[in-house]
Amino acid sequence: MQTRIFCLLAVVGSIYALPRIESTPKVLPYEEARAKYGADDLDVVDYGDHHLFVAAVENEHQRKGLEELEQERNELDFWNPVFVSRNVSIRVPPALVDEVEKQLKKFHLSYTLATKNLQSWIQHEKEENRQQNLFLVGSDPARFALNQYHSYDEISAYLDAIASRYSDIATLNTIGSTYEGRQIKGLQIASGGGQKPVIWLDSGIHAREWIAPATSLYIINKLVTGAKTDATVKALLDAYDFHVYPLINPDGYERTWSGDRMWRKNRVRFQGYSCQGVDPNRNFGYAFGGPGTSGDVCSDIYRGPGPFSELESQAVRSGVQSLTGRIKMFQTIHSYSQLIMLPYGAGPRIQSAHYNDQLQVAQAGQRAISAYSGLHYQVGTVTQLLSPAAGGAADWAHEGANIKYAFAIELRDKGRFGFLLPASQIQAVGEEWYRATASMVNEISRKETGRTIFNENSFPRGGTGGSQTPQPPPVPQWPPIWG
């Protein structure tokens, strides 16, 4: 009898020693969520007195210490993964400032306080993007200000306007709708019938990364306005069709405009949970539930109840599968850190069997950026450059959709502004990534057909377009310069 009691105690003890396994939440229908939480969705989150610390991670001991802190404190917002030999930015609510500073000192981390009041940065951004002349349905697309950030409604109206104005080459596609009922829209830009190999670009899967949708919109404009007058654009469209989806997560993006600039996830709500949202870029079907994800609904990297549970990841899957066998390159565009990333972020393999070809294509984009602006984008796998991140779009595109050239992109910058990149940099970033994409397409063409489709020497050099010496982008006057 005594032996049985000890065995029972051992079993109970082992159960309590196991990590907490989260139950599978059930989605709360949107109409019920509106009735219960409607006012909450209009709340303006004030980031006054929120501190932004930037810490230099120099060794494995420091990395593990910060990762433990991140796991223990969901209230902390790590803007980028903790990586040795790289800075990490941490947004800290006022109540945790002393604790975080104590931990930074405990692990002997060198750090800088970028701001004691993140709201002041957000306020400056609002003033820089004051919506004085809204782009409304039926407006002339030439009126759309590419050097400003825009709301979902404006972006949606702009896509409609492009499809109407350039109907000979631009076709509006809707690949899904969201929890809150917004359409996930994009454009097919094609000359000659739209049956050529496809270049897929999507962005805005993480809501607060505003420069990503702005860059996709810049590329759309570049393609449609240059289709008949720009030799490089004409060559690209003669060989490939482009499918561009600027805003995969419109619900989350709209929340960043309505009151919570730092929101990242989608806006789905679950029965019995006050926290909401799933990270759609942890919800794809390859290596779902692996490292770099969380089963905690309150986490910014919550992976969702199951693979492809989210309407955003379903929409990407639907769009990609409608083009089965035609997609030559898949890009999912994010910010920030200036990275061109190859598979994988998780799974049994460190790198693809096509790694060398992928690397050469990515390096073509890297060279194009360097030639234009003098900036350096690192190239490598997601795990090498960022951190393990299971359930990502690029990994699924490569493994699940059999797209050889699948990339996850992190645009500017390297942390000075982070997610609050000034609008004054939109056009430079847009041109930078348009040229990178064109050069990557050129390299794919060279590999698959034995010839390039345009002469890259035809690109004017220089960050302002025209001079033969690369010009750095103008340095904005805010926020205060820090080390």
From TrEMBL:
Q: Which SUPFAM superfamilies match?
A: Protease propeptides/inhibitors, Zn-dependent exopeptidases
Pfam families from the entry?
A: Peptidase_M14, Propep_M14
Q: Which domain of life is it from?
A: Eukaryota
Q: Which Gene3D superfamilies match?
A: Metallocarboxypeptidase-like, Zn peptidases
Domain Peptidase M14, by residue range, is 148-444
Q: Which GO terms describe its molecular function?
A: metallocarboxypeptidase activity; zinc ion binding
Where in the sequence is the active site? 410
Looking at the keywords, is Transferase present? no
From the Swiss-Prot or TrEMBL record, give the protein name: Carboxypeptidase B
Lineage at the top is: Eukaryota, Metazoa, Ecdysozoa, Arthropoda, Chelicerata
| Encoding gene (name) | LOC100899958
